[in-house]
Amino acid sequence: MLTTLLRDSRALATLAVPLVLTQLAQVALTTTDTVMMGLLGTEELAAGGLAIVIFNQLRTMGVGLVTSVGNQIAAAAARAEKDADAESGGGRANEEVRGIVRASLAVATLAGIAGAVLMVLIGQALTWLGQDASVVERTQTMLLALAPGLLPCLWFQAVRQFTVGMRRPQALLQITIASVAVNAGLNWVLIHGTWGLPRLGLTGIGVATSTVYLLSFIALYLSAKRDSELAPLLTLNIAKADPATVKRLLALGVPIAATYGSEAGFFSVTALMAGSFGPDALAAHTAVNQLVYIVFQVAVGLSHAASINVSRELALGHIDDARRIKNTALACAAAVMAVVGVLYLALPRLVLAPFLDSGAGSGEALTIATQLLIVTAFLQFFDCAQNIGVGLLRGLDDTKSGFRITVIGYWAVGLPASWLLAYALDLDTLGIWLGLLTGLATTAVLLLRRYSASLSLHGSTTAATAAAA
To answer: CA-CA distances (angstroms) from residue 355 to 28, 40, 435?
Structure first.
């Protein structure tokens, strides 16, 4: 069994490691932003953190709309592999891939425009949600700077799904690492008004982020066009997108977007709850949430790789291999989370140092954040497990179950638990995070059970069909 686990882990790592590293490099963008917000002050960190929460809410839902692209392309390529007539099968697969790419870019364009408008409108409504007035003013300005970046961000994600589905994600890592350096440089220049540019402060961080998203999309597109295997399949002519393909992607993508939105919304509401306890509580919540977000990228990479591999194995008729993928992904995630959890518990102040300094005015925020890290050390196991569960179900083309289960886990269990512990039992921000843990644990258990049951049903149906034939 150990030998099988090691073999499966190596196979999963072939695709997962570049994706995990890409995710970690990508999250370094918001981490850099958060660190620089902290250098500007506690109120700037609270305001900028709230703006990033709102941006991530809409970005995540937009990404969800095109996430199934990778699975669809992987399945098409596997079917072509299986086809006895290799030339004919490859031709059909190529045409199918081109159609999916056009449709995904069309979906990304619509989502980017709609999301940018909605982002600004949400910023105008913050004063009605119990947030500090000085924080709201800064947040609104930051959102105006971030909104234009959503469109190229989603274009980048559509092309990214295409390269991952074709199992050629390597250029993603190089581009994302370069974008981190560019983002840090632009942040510094625009915050402080270097080289004769206006001193924009917090707003400069938003302008820099939007600029980097545009540059990243251009770089990924040009990289794909230089790849002899990818270039013939990549087209930006969204005017020729097939309505039927767009409809199919939306049928799969809307539940994924709703699932991602359900999770992101869960964290967004808890951020608003933390803000009701004051700027120190919101700053602490922002810092710890960013740490969770960083570690979560390991689960995102594993989930995506597992999802792609499940789609491929099912297309090839390998049910047992698809079943083992779950255990392999969870074992890999647990190993990483255990190491990180020990670090949180042993060196909390060192971990928090990049986000919250120990100077005057930040003592209360640092104390709150240190308490939250204890909860986070355990919460992240369930956070990773539930994300892997969503990816596994996506590999079965079951995107609706993930949404239904997250609604139950987050909103019917987690949010009421957060409210009860934070307000009724007076645990404040600590109560919010204990509620988060409860919701994520419930969601993880339900998702993984659903995958096992669905895979067994799929295997029975496949066997019955083969016997009938």
So the answer is: 13, 11, 23
In this structure, is residue 368 part of a structural domain? Answer: yes
Residue 22 has pLDDT above 90, yes or no: no
- Tell me the whole-structure pTM to 2 decimals: 0.76
- Does residue 157 register a pLDDT over 70? yes
**Residue 261 domain flag:** yes
Domain count, the chain: 1
Q: Is residue 466 part of a domain?
A: no
- Which DSSP category does 422 fall into? I
Q: Which domain holds residue 31?
A: 2-460
The alpha carbon torsion through 18, 90, 253, 160 (nearest 10 deg) reads 30
Helix ranges (DSSP H) in 127-242: 133-146, 150-165, 170-192, 202-225
Task: Count the residues in the chain.
Answer: 469
pLDDT of residue 33: 81
- Distance, in Å, from the CA atom of 455 to the CA atom of 446, rounded to the nearest integer, reads 14
Q: Which two tokens stand for residue 74?
A: 């992987």
Is residue 126 one of the residues assigned to a domain?
yes
Cα–Cα distance between 159 and 104 in angstroms, integer? Answer: 8
Phi, psi of 197 (to 5 degrees): -80, 155
Q: How far apart are CA 279 and CA 134, in angstroms?
A: 10
Is the CB of residue 68 less than 8 Å from the CB of residue 249? yes
